[in-house]
Specification:
The complex is a heterotetramer.
Chain B: H1 5-12, E1 28-32, H2 42-46, E2 52-54, E3 57-58, H3 60-64, H4 71-82, E4 91-92, E5 103-105, H5 115-119, E6 125-129, H6 135-139
Antiparallel strand pairs in B: 1-6, 2-5, 3-4
Chain C: E1 52-57, H1 61-70, E2 79-84, H2 92-100, E3 105-110, H3 121-138, E4 146-150, H4 156-172
Parallel strand pairs in C: 1-2, 1-3, 3-4
Helix pairs in contact in C: 1-4
Chain D: E1 4-9, H1 21-29, E2 34-40, H2 46-59, E3 63-68, H3 71-84, E4 92-96, H4 98-102, H5 109-129, E5 137-139, E6 143-147, H6 151-162, E7 166-170, E8 185-186, E9 191-192, H7 193-206, E10 210-213, E11 216-222, E12 228-234, H8 248-252, E13 256-258, E14 267-269, E15 271-272, E16 284-285, H9 292-296, H10 303-311, H11 315-323, H12 329-335, H13 339-343, H14 346-349, H15 355-366, E17 383-386, H16 390-402, E18 406-410, H17 418-421, H18 430-441, E19 446-449, H19 459-464, E20 469-472, E21 478-479, E22 492-494, H20 495-504, E23 513-517, H21 521-532, E24 537-541, H22 553-561, E25 565-567, E26 570-576, E27 583-591, E28 602-604, E29 610-613, E30 616-619, E31 623-624, E32 638-639, E33 642-643, E34 657-659, H23 670-689, H24 708-712, H25 727-730, H26 743-750, H27 764-768, E35 781-787, E36 789-792, E37 796-798, E38 815-817, H28 818-825, E39 846-853, H29 870-884, E40 889-894, H30 904-913, E41 917-920, E42 926-928, E43 934-939, E44 946-951, E45 953-958, E46 960-962, H31 964-973, E47 1000-1002, H32 1012-1030, E48 1034-1036, ...
Parallel strand pairs in D: 1-2, 1-3, 3-4, 6-7, 6-36, 7-10, 17-18, 17-20, 18-19, 20-34, 22-30, 23-24, 23-30, 24-25, 36-47, 38-45, 39-40, 39-45, 40-41
Antiparallel strand pairs in D: 5-48, 8-9, 11-12, 12-35, 13-14, 15-16, 21-31, 26-27, 27-28, 27-29, 32-33, 37-46, 42-43, 43-44, 49-52, 50-51
Chain lengths: ~325, ~150, ~180, ~1100
């Protein structure tokens, strides 16, 4: 079936991989897989030591005012442009949305003046040239820009593996009109995995429902948070998926870490696993499950899936 | 190749057609008469190389040189009656004023095809043939290869 | 006191069009009620009655004028009105000919922007009056002698205000000297 | 010089109270051109008129100046006087002495007097410059075109016809009725929609002044108002007027499609009528052209036809469709390379439909039982057919059916040609060929086997012995052998000879190790035949590489499975062996660029020659005409080993001698030979009858395509694979390898067909129709009408709720829109008015309705506007449900309940009392449970409570948008469209039913969302506007329009670019100059002000007149 995600101009370089706190601490495999894929698809990128945390977690849990996030986002933009890699590729949808929103707010003169007053103390300025060269992309968008090459690089057929997408709210709902595809039925992930022969699920009931994490709800209001997650697990189980793929470490933590807890507390069976999109794509292209995809960091036992796709034998060249 | 008397006579009264008398002569020089121009823009649309251009400035001096009995002439007459000094330099013209705009001609872009002359309804553009054998033709790089070397 | 609607900042005009900020058609009153920056002041201002010719569009301005008349509003006698089907019909020649043949000021009055019965007639008139004003300035004549106002057919007070405003403006200017 | 008369009016003291009129009059007399000045107390009255008439007569005036009130007030009065006195138009000038002078300068009489003098002088100066103008008269055609057959179009048409105006009512769809025909009841009176629409339809059908054009679209509009030239395009209905509306055809039609009228709630047949009292009542066939399979097939077999019939198990009818163009359906079902499957649309979804396998099952199942009556002999011209192959026999059968006596001559002892002697029986059993040959002969065709053309008889002898036409269908029986060194060694045989000997049962043996040279189907057949004849090792060597090998992939795969080895890209060089063949030497090669005839000769490439052990070599490298087969056939030209044939008539160089099949166009597959035979039969018929009665080449229809969007809504189902005998078992047996489908398999596979072409041209309806009204040959045709005015009433369409994926419309079974619910509740609807849940047909106990779907939506997914009728529509349906099903609970989630209009608020109270629950909430997502019920979560913004409930049925109140027809007509005739595509009215209050263009009016929901009452009101208003416009029959275009003087105009085109009406264009009459379409010009004068040459002027406001007035 023809893919529905629209074509985009290929991005081959100038990419700064924006490291994510949750990915680095919880699922480093997602970052490693992304780097591995960038090399496979010929995307020139750097990891910039100057780049700091996006403070999205702090802002969304109301710990810090938006002004702080705004200044840090402006600094990160300056740093990226200065390093000659203005295409910031975000591993996590929260970073993507918060930096893009900051970019919009920085178009307002008085906010920019205020931020530049702060940046002056560290000898930086966020001016029009920075504002016009910096670009904000999710890593999946960068991968999609090279998606024609994927078919030729598949080393492990994922035929028969049924995949569903949990669309990250911060990617789909903060800038709904700038989403690659339909913001209320995102098919970007499944279109990326199509060359590997997966069976696509497409739209399913409550696809756009929240994963339940809600930044601090997970800690302040765990009962309600897990109740929402269970609702989603039930829907995905009803679709008989094998893998649910994610675009944000927050969702992956919410599902992967609490999958068995919810199964035990509501004694129901949800026979599927959770992976980042990049991890599954890398596996299909023959990446090593441990050193590249970091499967050991997941709570769920991913061995059955790896056996099923022959990821444990050496990948045929 | 020097022109015969007949050749010179033909080339002489050619209005804009490429004289093409001999390889040595190419196209023609264009001479503009601003006072006759009414700003209709036909030469601009006819010119294939963009040598003729109309921008959104207007020089009132152009008005004062317009002959009586024409639209611009009447305007000039009225303006002259109340003017307190010679018109100062050109000024910018609002978007919807179409015909009061100056025509700019850039000789280096001109291919000498004469289309503007044929298009102009008021004779504001004239074409005079390039003198034969003039080295300047070769210098302008317009002459075909092998000529004048 | 109402002031002419159309005016714009004076753009400097180098011979070759340099890259300068494009002049926005900002409707900003150019002169203050108090003073008039006339280049030179001719002997006495009040020598004789001024004459103003006004081109009013049949659909809006002329009907507002009639309404003012039926309301017996007193208006300055200096203004003489001429009906045109639409302000789009007024060409620069009409305005300059009127000035040349005795008028001390001319103005055009038409429908509000977007309400023109011929959709774009008033926009054309706005641009043409702006052109005439720059033409006047280039020959040293006060640009305030030409103006344009837009009004709704039912807005009689605005017609009265613009008429009186124009009369005040022109009466502060000397009679237009003609060669 | 003009003779101008001035008339001053005291206006009963209004003017004379301030101005000294006698002084003014005195001053006036001195103005040049003035011959008379008079003062009157009341000029505008009858006394004033007599005064003016008197002075004009006495002093011979040709201009009049009126000094009185404003021209906007009494101007028309004085202009009419001038017109009555034949002074003509534009001969009166006005001095506004009252509103322009007396009233506004009452307190300064002397200044007023001086101003009056100037004003009067200006008027006199203007009068002197005014030239009399001739109004041009346009003939107003007393007819109107109404676009759109809904309630708006019908109401307007009815009103116009009542005023005696001829109406052309144009409707895109199959029947009039539009959206209202789909409704069950209408609010607020809950009376049935059809009760008010029905009479309108009947009226439109019977009123002689209303010409109804259905299945018709407007494709072009030109000319001025009053004389619009409208181009119409009529799509074929494929059913003639004899249709009595009995509906027998729908019973037999095998094709089911989604019913647009029922908005997809049910399905309808390809031949259908939208609703019972449709106007016109004739049925119509939804024929979208040839399906890809039909258009690809060389014989253009109605493949979709026999598959649709097969899907219903109607094998006999399916056989009739399959065998119509092709007497060998069973043969082709087995051996055809089925290019139709490669083109099958289903291939883009999952896998193509197994068309050939179904055809085989149909032929095997119903072929034998299909009766063959020998056709009636109609002509005496005897026709001879040389060669009993597929081409010859097809021609023979078709000629017999046309009524000719036919004799077929066959060189071999048995008929069938390559089918019988070329294709081995494990692919094509002999009894299958025999039975289908038998059926051809049963058409009264005489077979003379064992007689070779060129030996036992010749073309000349046939013609001499009385045959009026000869068809050479003798094929290419001669196997070509490569002139290689060692070819005379025993063990070197031709592929065709091997296959023919096997087919005839002659003794033939092959060695232990066989090499077959060649890459086509014949080579594969020879190789597998060699296997079955006991060869241990069989290799196919060919010059092509693996990818460009011409043999059918399926056949090659089966051969390889049976152990045949493949050696591609090798060209044979020499055959080695002393006395007996021992091996064959090959040189590796590549293929050169194709030559003129597309043949790619081999070029030896680097690399050592290869020697392959072989005791038998079989050459399958092409076929040739039999030697001297064309002896005694003077005039029959041969080029490149093939008989030259005129493509249009199938005739050879010799009159009366035709050719078809392999002999006339080498290397054909069976179906191409069959199609060629059929063409030859038609060519012979045309020749013998002396005129072109039949199209030799069938007229191609355009190919019907299914869009990706439609495809994505179909569920994919795997293709039925055919069972085969396992390779090791079939390696040595002559059993037919492919075992064919069972009945269940054939039925299941046939049901995968997507009916791309709509009507499959299976012609079942043609057979069944008692009135013989079916006519599939109808073609689209164009027409041009001249009408006075247009009314556009093209209506609206429902917002596509699929644009809101979380609501699940189109995915969840029990989510419908209000229109679909209207169909369910409609007595004439698919469920006869019974409210049935689509998933299980039960009566829903809990119904949830969601308002503002796609309306009042500021995201990029919906429309900003409120669609006006949905709250009422939902309330109506809720009321109907509560009344008929007291047990069913209805909840309506609204944003704001909008019930404007008479009696609507009261209706709401009535319905609310019937127990309908209204909650204020805007639900964003629905979720379908296992039992197809729907989980709805909503927050009631009035009580603030959060709710979550399960519902059996959810109905979305999708809003209104301009219909596709509205957007199309707006593009064609140049109307402006506002938000959501609604047509823009000239002025929302003053001229609500006028469009921007003169003479074109708009009405109904095409202009904006509204209910039926307002729609009808607008329709009547539009009709009134047309009636008043066309009333006079003749219209004088006003003189105050633009005019360009052709001699002065310099053709710069500035006027064309500035005209807001697009009424000016450049024309080339010798000199390029501007021409104004005076009917469309509104006289604004923008062009005149912009014109650099002064050519353009406006009647009554010329530059001369204005300058005169301004400069006095």
């Amino acid at each position: 079936m023809p893919h529905t995600t629209p074509e985009v101009d290929p991005i081959a370089g100038g990419v700064q991989l924006f490291r994510s706190c949750m990915v680095s601490s919880e699922y480093p495999g997602a970052e490693a897989a992304t780097k591995w894929l960038f090399e496979k698809l010929g995307v020139e990128y750097i990891v910039n030591p100057e780049q700091t945390c996006c403070t999205g977690m702090g802002y969304y849990t109301d710990l810090m005012p938006f002004a702080t996030t705004l200044a840090i986002a402006a600094r990160n933009a300056c740093v990226a442009v200065e390093a000659g890699h203005p295409v910031q590729a975000y591993l996590c949808s929260t970073c993507y949305a918060i930096n893009k929103k900051a970019h919009r707010v920085l178009e307002v003169p008085e906010h920019r003046r205020e931020v530049n007053r702060v940046l002056a103390e560290i000898g930086r300025v966020y001016d029009d040239t920075i504002a016009q060269t910096i670009q904000h992309r999710h890593v999946l968008e960068v991968l999609w820009s090279q998606h024609e090459k994927l078919a030729g690089l598949v080393r492990r057929r994922l035929g028969g593996i049924r995949v569903a997408t949990h669309p990250a709210c911060h990617y789909c709902k903060v800038f709904p009109d700038e989403v690659l595809g339909d913001s209320e039925n995102l098919m970007l992930a499944e279109d990326l995995l199509e060359p590997a022969g997966v069976t696509r699920t497409g739209d399913y009931p409550e696809k756009t429902t929240h994963c339940g994490a809600g930044f601090r709800q997970r800690f302040v209001n765990p009962a309600m948070s897990l109740a929402v997650t269970r609702e989603k697990l039930r829907r995905l189980a009803a679709e008989k998926v094998d893998v649910c793929v994610h675009m944000c470490p927050n969702c992956t933590v919410q599902f992967d870490r609490h999958h068995d807890i919810i199964e035990r507390t509501s004694d129901e069976e949800y026979p599927f696993v959770h992976l980042h999109v990049q991890q599954l794509v890398a596996l299909a292209l023959g990446a090593d499950p441990d050193t590249v995809c970091g499967v050991a960091a997941h709570s769920q036992d991913l061995e059955p899936l790896l056996q099923r796709i022959g990821a444990r034998q050496a990948a045929p060249l | 190749m020097p022109l015969s008397a007949r050749g010179r006579q033909i080339a002489g009264d050619l209005r804009g057609a490429t004289s093409g008398v001999s390889a040595g002569v190419l196209g023609c020089d264009v001479v503009r008469h601003d006072e006759l121009c009414v700003g209709c823009g036909r030469c601009v649309s006819a010119c294939p190389t963009g040598a003729m251009r109309q921008d959104d400035w207007f020089d009132p001096a152009q008005l004062f040189s317009a002959p009586a009995g024409t639209g611009r002439g009447a305007l000039a007459a009225a303006l002259r009656r109340i003017a307190r000094h010679e018109p100062s330099g050109p000024f910018r013209v609002p978007d919807r004023v179409r015909t009061f705009r100056r025509i700019l001609f850039s000789a280096d872009l001109c291919a000498g095809c004469g289309a503007c002359v044929r298009a102009c309804p008021t004779g504001a553009v004239e074409a005079s043939p390039v003198p034969v054998g003039d080295l300047e033709v070769a210098a302008r790089g317009l002459a075909p290869a092998g000529v004048g070397t | 006191m109402n002031v002419p609607v159309v005016a714009e900042a004076e753009p400097t005009a180098p011979a070759v069009a340099a890259t300068e900020v494009r002049v926005a058609q900002v409707r900003v009153p150019e002169i203050s009620a108090a003073g008039v920056p006339v280049s030179e002041v001719i002997a006495d201002a009040a020598d004789g009655e001024r004459s103003i010719v006004a081109f009013l569009c049949r659909e809006c301005a002329y009907s507002a004028a009639d309404a003012a008349g039926n309301a017996r509003t007193s208006l300055p006698p200096t203004i003489r009105t001429i009906m045109v089907p639409c302000t789009g019909r007024v060409s620069p020649l009409h305005l300059l000919a009127a000035l040349a043949e005795g008028a001390d000021g001319v103005y055009v009055a038409g429908c509000l922007e977007g309400q023109c019965h011929h959709r774009v007639g008033n926009f054309h008139a706005l641009d043409r009056v702006a052109f005439v004003r720059r033409l006047l300035r280039s020959v040293g004549v006060e640009p305030e002698r030409a103006a344009m106002f837009t009004m709704s057919a039912a807005d009689t007070p605005r017609f009265v205000a613009t008429a009186r405003g124009m009369d005040a403006t022109i009466s502060q200017l000397p009679r237009l000297p003609r060669s | 010089m003009t003779r101008c008369g001035v008339f001053l009016c005291e206006c009963g003291g209004n003017i004379s109270g301030v101005l000294d009129l006698p002084a003014l009059a005195a001053g006036g007399r001195s103005l040049d051109g003035v011959v008379n000045v008079t003062v009157s107390q009341f000029l505008c009255g009858a006394e004033g008129r007599r005064l003016i008439e008197g002075v004009v007569a006495d002093r011979g005036l040709d201009r009049i100046v009126i000094g009185s009130c404003s021209r906007r007030f009494q101007g028309p009065t004085f202009e009419r006087i001038a017109r009555d006195l034949e002074l003509g138009e534009n001969t009166v000038a006005f001095a506004n002495l009252r509103e322009g002078c007396a009233f506004i300068h009452r307190h300064e009489p002397e200044k007023a007097q001086r101003k009056a003098e100037t004003v009067l002088a200006a008027a006199v100066a203007r009068a002197g410059r005014q030239r009399p103008l001739q109004p041009s008269r346009t003939f107003l055609n007393r007819s109107a075109l109404v676009v759109g057959g809904g309630i708006a179009g019908l109401s307007a048409a009815e009103e116009l016809a009542g005023a005696g105006i001829t109406v052309h009512l144009v409707e895109r769809g199959q029947s009039l009725g539009g959206y209202m025909a789909r409704l069950s009841k209408t609010f607020p009176t809950e009376d049935c929609a059809m009760c008010s629409l029905g009479p309108r339809l009947a009226n439109a059908a019977t009123d002689s002044r209303i010409n109804v054009h259905t299945l018709t679209e407007v494709t072009g509009l030109s000319g001025p108002p009053g004389e619009f030239r409208v181009r119409l395009r009529h799509s074929p209905r494929f059913v003639s007027d004899q249709c009595v509306g009995c509906g027998t055809c729908t019973a037999v039609c095998p094709v089911e499609l989604e019913s647009e009228f029922d908005l997809g709630v049910t399905r309808r047949k390809a031949i259908s009528r939208p609703f019972a009292n449709a106007v016109p009542s004739t049925f119509a066939i939804d024929n979208r052209g040839w399906a890809p399979c039909t258009s690809t097939c060389p014989a253009h077999t109605a493949a979709q036809g026999y598959i649709a019939l097969a899907a219903q198990g109607r094998w006999a009818e399916a056989y009739r469709v399959a065998s119509a163009p092709n007497p060998f359906p069973s043969v082709c079902g087995r051996i055809c390379p089925h290019e139709c499957e490669e083109q099958c649309t289903r291939g883009r979804l999952d896998q193509p439909v197994a068309i050939a396998a179904i055809k085989r099952f149909v032929a095997d199942q119903a072929g034998a039982a299909d009766p063959v009556e020998p056709p009636v002999r109609r002509f005496e011209d005897r026709v001879a057919v040389v060669g009993a192959g597929p081409a010859g026999l097809t021609a023979a059968r078709d000629l017999a059916l046309l009524g000719y006596p036919v004799t077929v001559f066959e060189a071999q002892g048995v008929a069938g040609g390559m089918l019988r002697l070329g294709v081995p029986e494990y692919r094509l059993p002999r009894d299958v060929v025999a039975s289908e040959v038998e059926r051809v002969l049963a058409h009264g065709v005489e077979l003379r086997a064992g007689e070779r053309c060129g030996h036992d008889y010749t073309v000349d002898s046939l013609l001499a012995s009385g045959y009026r036409a000869v068809l050479l269908a003798l094929g290419l029986p001669q196997a070509r052998l490569l002139p290689l060194e060692g070819r005379e060694l025993p063990g070197v045989i031709g592929g065709l000879d091997l296959l023919r000997s096997r087919a005839l049962g002659d003794p033939i043996a092959v060695g232990r190790c066989v090499v077959v040279v060649g890459g086509g189907d014949v080579a594969v057949d020879a190789a597998r035949t060699a296997l079955r004849l006991g060869a241990e090792r069989v290799t196919i060597a060919c010059i092509e590489d693996r990818a460009t090998l011409p043999a059918q992939p399926g056949e090659l795969a089966e051969a390889i499975a049976e152990g045949v080895e493949l050696a591609p890209s090798l060209m044979p060089v020499a055959l080695l062996g002393d006395g007996a063949l021992s091996s064959i030497r090959f040189q590796p090669c590549t293929l050169a660029e194709p030559d003129a005839r597309g043949w790619r000769p081999p070029e030896p490439s680097a690399g050592e020659p290869v020697e392959v052990e072989a005791d038998t070599v079989v050459f399958c490298v092409g076929q040739a005409l039999g030697e001297d087969a064309l002896a005694g056939a003077a005039g029959v030209a041969v080029a490149g080993g093939r008989i030259v044939v005129d493509r249009e008539t199938m005739m050879t160089g010799r009159r009366g001698v035709f050719a078809a099949g392999d002999a006339a166009g080498g290397g054909l597959i069976a179906i191409e030979a069959i199609a060629a035979g059929a063409r030859a039969a038609r060519g012979i018929h045309n020749h013998l009858r002396g005129e072109a009665l039949l199209d030799v080449w069938p007229v191609e229809r355009e190919r019907a395509e299914v869009s990706d969007l439609e495809l994505s809504r179909r569920r994919s189902r795997p293709r039925q694979e055919m069972r085969v005998i396992p390779p090791e078992e079939r390696r040595t047996s002559w059993q037919e390898v492919r075992l064919g489908f069972t009945e269940e398999e054939a039925l299941a596979e046939a049901r995968r067909c997507l009916s791309c072409g709509g009507c499959s041209e299976c012609r079942s309806c043609e057979q069944a129709c008692p009135a013989g009204a079916i006519d599939l040959t109808q073609k689209p045709w164009e027409e041009e009408l001249t009408v006075g005015a247009l009314i556009v009433a093209t209506g609206h369409q429902e917002f596509d709720a699929r644009r809101k994926p979380p609501l699940g419309y189109g995915r969840y079974a029990n989510v419908l829109t209000q229109s679909q619910l209207a169909r369910l509740l409609s007595a004439s609807g698919p469920t006869g008015g019974e409210l049935r849940r689509p998933s299980d047909g039960q009566v829903p106990k809990r119904v949830f309705m969601l308002q503002c779907v796609g309306s009042r939506d500021s995201t990029s997914r919906g429309n900003e506007h409120c669609s006006a009728i949905c709250c009422l529509f939902a309330t109506l349906h809720a009321s109907l449900i509560r009344e008929s099903y007291p047990g069913t609970q209805v909840t309506i989630a609204y944003t704001d309940l909008r019930m404007p209009g008479k009696g609507h608020e009261e209706y709401l109270k009535l319905v609310a009392e019937r127990g309908v629950r209204y909650v204020r909430s805007r639900v964003g997502e629905l979720a379908e449970e296992q039992d197809k019920s729907l989980r709805v979560r909503w927050e009631d913004t009035v009580t603030g409570g959060k709710h979550e409930e399960l519902f059996d049925l959810v109905v979305l109140s999708a809003g209104l948008e301009a219909s596709a027809g509205t957007t199309q007509i707006a593009r064609v005739i140049g109307l402006q469209q506002g938000a959501a595509g609604f047509l823009k009215e000239y002025h929302p209050k003053l001229r609500p039913v006028d469009s921007q263009r003169a003479g074109i009016f708009i009405a109904g929901t095409a202009q904006g969302p509204k209910g039926i009452p307002e729609t009808i009101a607008q329709a009547k208003a539009a009709a009134a506007r047309v009636t008043s416009m066309l009333h006079g029959g003749m219209a004088a275009t006003p003189v105050e329009v633009a005019f360009s003087d052709p001699d002065v105009c310099i053709g710069c085109g500035v006027c064309v670019s500035v005209c807001p009406q697009g009424a000016v264009r450049l024309v080339d009459g010798g000199r390029v100059h501007a021409l104004v379409d005076q009917a469309s010009c509104r006289g604004c004068g923008i062009c005149a002000a912009e014109c650099p040459s002064g050519a353009m002027t406006v009647g009554g406001f010329s530059d001369a007149a204005l300058l005169a007035e301004a400069t006095v």
